[in-house]
Amino acid sequence: MRVLVIEDESKTAAYLQQGLSENGFVVDVCANGDDGLHQASRQKATSLFLDVMLPKRDGWTVLMDLRKREESRRRCCFSRPRHRLRQGEGTRTWRG
């Protein structure tokens, strides 16, 4: 099974890549939203780990663009460190 990790923090990306690889997944990693969108369109990953706060294109925009381009749905996990949350923010549920 192929997993795409779109994460700009290199330590977090490496941690996810190592853990997923050790459990038998094929892992691709991209460090910004534009590269992640391109990779997701090129390689049909089964699942995405998608950071919300990304350079060039944020995670929500990446997800919306993918949903516009594709009929199939992928499982998606968003990440955003607590220290980046502002008061009143929480998780957002995507309904698409």
Shape: globular
Task: Count up the domains.
Answer: 1
CATH topology: Rossmann fold
Assign the CATH superfamily: Response regulator
Amount of helix: 25-40%
Number of helices: 3
- Main sheet summary: 4 strands, parallel
Number of strands: 4
- What's the CATH class, please? Alpha Beta
Terminal CA distance: 24 Å
Overall CATH architecture: 3-Layer(aba) Sandwich
The helix/strand series, from N terminus to C terminus, equals EHEHEHE
Query: How confident overall, as mean pLDDT?
Result: 80
Low-confidence stretches: 85-96
Key attributes of the depicted protein:
single chain; alpha/beta; Rossmann fold; 4-stranded parallel beta sheet; 4 strands; disordered C terminus
Verbal overview:
This protein has helices at residues 10-22, 33-42, 59-69, and strands at residues 2-6, 26-30, 47-51, 75-79. Helix content is 35%, strand content 21%. The chain starts with a strand and ends in a 17-residue tail after the last strand. The radius of gyration is 13 Å and the shape is globular. By secondary structure, the chain is of the alpha/beta class. It has one domain (7-77): Response regulator (Rossmann fold, 3-Layer(aba) Sandwich), CATH 3.40.50.2300. The longest helix is centred in the N-terminal third of the chain and has 13 residues, at 10-22. It contains 3 helices and 4 strands, in the order E-H-E-H-E-H-E. The protein has a 4-stranded parallel sheet with strand order 2-1-3-4.
